[in-house]
């Protein structure tokens, strides 16, 4: 065992000394192997499906490790959300072993092992790549696909499918606290970058030169913030230093990927604190450029108050294990910018406020999806919630009853109630009326509508002047 560890350390040191300095980990970092009594991770805390994958890969002669966030969370005595695996088997070799395997991704080739709704993600050890725009490594045999890596002129990794050893894979990890590998063979945790020490010191530290690593993948800036808030840690000063200046690189990330990242950030259960830190590092402004125009130094605008309120409410619902709808969050955050846009459109074009409202709704959502590709199913819900706000004031006749039949009535009413916290007394009275209307029986609802009609809210219908009735022309014989 000692000989194996010595060989691994020697191999790791050789690779660190020979690799490109732009991705070199600090020289004081050394490999450490923690035995079972030292780390306290038990197999009973690991997903049964993840163990099945690990055992089968090992039985087939491959090295396989539980890696990254799963190991990190177990060491922090938290229940991991996902269990990811790293192995020296290629995606094609993994697919041969598992009939329930699906290969995904172009930028990063991954294997998903499907157990019903449970998905175990398996990645092949990543190797180093050159700084050239594109690099192709020939496959070991004709049945495997060539290994390809490429990067943009700005240094962003566009493709990263060059495979390597576990030591190289550890060096390619983003944060030290994620360069941790648990083996079911000997129950050890291998720490390649003093990640356990950083866990104990409550520090999020990027591996390698921060500016280079952020340029490779700007989403790492979002991950640094997410981990710091989620794990109640501090971002190490050298890791934090370039973020504000490089935040603009987020604009080069595909909008679809940023949508997924926004869900992780806003629906983490610490959405409010995450928002505040993202804004501090100029990252939130890149995700929601429309909102940044409404930010003030003292957080006093209605937009800022609404953002803080909806995120605090979302955190509370998640803590209570209640369902959260992303569309409701987006509707709340974008509401006041949309209303201001509607007033501007109405004033500039002479359109009625209703028509200007519809134009502004489309404009705001179209602009936002350029940054974050909010799916149509969510933007449709956002529009429904917004449009219902105009209908709430129209309660005469059968309108109130029809409004309650709308599929998005409950979400729209909750939104109206939330607006009443920040808007005038008329909105508060309207929200109170709808609260009473929902809880009333059918006869009481009829009386409430009659009272609205008697109060003069119903416009008298203007009769068209009657035209003299024309006689049917008689056919001359």
Automatic annotation (TrEMBL):
At the top level of its lineage, which domain of life is listed? Bacteria
Which enzyme class? transferase
Keyword ATP-binding annotated: yes
Per the UniProt entry, what are the Gene Ontology biological process annotations, in alphabetical order? Answer: mRNA processing; polyadenylation-dependent RNA catabolic process
Catalytic reactions on record: RNA(n) + ATP = RNA(n)-3'-adenine ribonucleotide + diphosphate
Compositional bias, Basic residues, is annotated for: 458-477
Which Gene3D superfamilies did the record assign? Answer: Beta Polymerase, domain 2, cca-adding enzyme, domain 2
Name the Gene Ontology molecular function terms of this record.
ATP binding; poly(A) RNA polymerase activity; RNA binding
Stated EC number for the protein is: 2.7.7.19
Q: What exactly does this protein do?
A: Adds poly(A) tail to the 3' end of many RNAs, which usually targets these RNAs for decay. Plays a significant role in the global control of gene expression, through influencing the rate of transcript degradation, and in the general RNA quality control.
Q: Which family does it belong to?
A: Belongs to the tRNA nucleotidyltransferase/poly(A) polymerase family.
Per its record, how is this protein called by name?
Poly(A) polymerase I
State the species of origin. Answer: Photobacterium aquimaris
> Taxonomic classification, please?
Bacteria, Pseudomonadati, Pseudomonadota, Gammaproteobacteria, Vibrionales
Source gene? pcnB
């Amino acid at each position: 065992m000692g000989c194996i560890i010595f060989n691994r350390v020697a191999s790791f040191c050789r690779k660190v000394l020979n690799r490109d300095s732009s991705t070199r980990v600090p020289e004081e970092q050394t490999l450490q192997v923690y035995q079972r009594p030292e780390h306290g991770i038990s197999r009973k805390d690991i997903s049964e499906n993840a163990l099945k994958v690990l055992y089968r890969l090992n039985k087939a002669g491959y090295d396989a490790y539980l890696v990254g966030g799963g190991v990190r969370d177990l060491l922090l005595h938290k229940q991991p959300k996902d269990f990811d695996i790293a192995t020296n088997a290629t995606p094609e070799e993994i697919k041969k072993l598992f009939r329930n395997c699906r290969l995904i991704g172009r930028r990063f080739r991954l294997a998903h092992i499907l157990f019903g709704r449970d998905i175990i993600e398996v990645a092949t050890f990543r190797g180093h790549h050159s700084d050239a725009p594109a690099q192709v490594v020939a496959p070991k045999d004709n049945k495997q696909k060539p290994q390809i890596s490429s990067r943009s002129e700005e240094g962003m990794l566009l493709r990263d499918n060059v495979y390597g050893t576990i030591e190289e894979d550890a060096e390619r990890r983003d944060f030290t606290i994620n360069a941790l590998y648990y083996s079911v063979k000997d129950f050890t945790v291998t720490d390649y970058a003093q990640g356990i020490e950083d866990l104990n010191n409550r520090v999020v530290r990027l591996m390698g030169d921060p500016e280079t690593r952020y340029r490779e993948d700007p989403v790492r800036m979002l991950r640094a913030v997410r981990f710091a808030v989620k794990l109640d840690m501090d971002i190490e000063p050298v890791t934090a230093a370039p973020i504000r200046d490089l935040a603009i690189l987020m604009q080069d990330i595909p909008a679809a990927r940023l949508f997924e990242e926004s869900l992780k950030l806003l629906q983490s259960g610490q959405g409010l604190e995450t928002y505040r830190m993202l804004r501090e590092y100029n990252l939130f402004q890149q995700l929601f450029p429309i909102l940044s125009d409404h930010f003030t130094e003292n957080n006093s605008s209605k937009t800022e108050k609404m953002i803080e309120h909806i995120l605090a409410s979302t955190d509370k619902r998640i803590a209570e294990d209640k369902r959260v709808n992303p569309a409701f969050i987006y509707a709340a955050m974008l509401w006041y910018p949309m209303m201001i846009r509607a007033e501007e459109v109405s004033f500039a074009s002479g359109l009625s406020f209703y028509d200007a409202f519809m134009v502004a709704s489309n404009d705001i959502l179209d602009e936002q999806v350029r940054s974050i590709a909010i799916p149509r199913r969510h933007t449709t819900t956002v529009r429904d919630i917004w449009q219902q706000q105009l209908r709430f004031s129209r309660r005469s006749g059968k309108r109130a009853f029809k409004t309650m039949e709308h599929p998005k009535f409950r979400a729209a009413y909750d939104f109206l109630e939330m607006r009443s916290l920040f808007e005038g007394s008329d909105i508060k009275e309207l929200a109170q009326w709808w609260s009473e209307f929902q809880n009333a029986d059918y006869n009481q609802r009829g009386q409430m509508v009659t009272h609205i009609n008697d109060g003069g809210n119903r416009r008298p219908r203007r009769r068209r002047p009657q035209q003299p009735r024309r006689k049917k022309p008689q056919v001359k014989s």
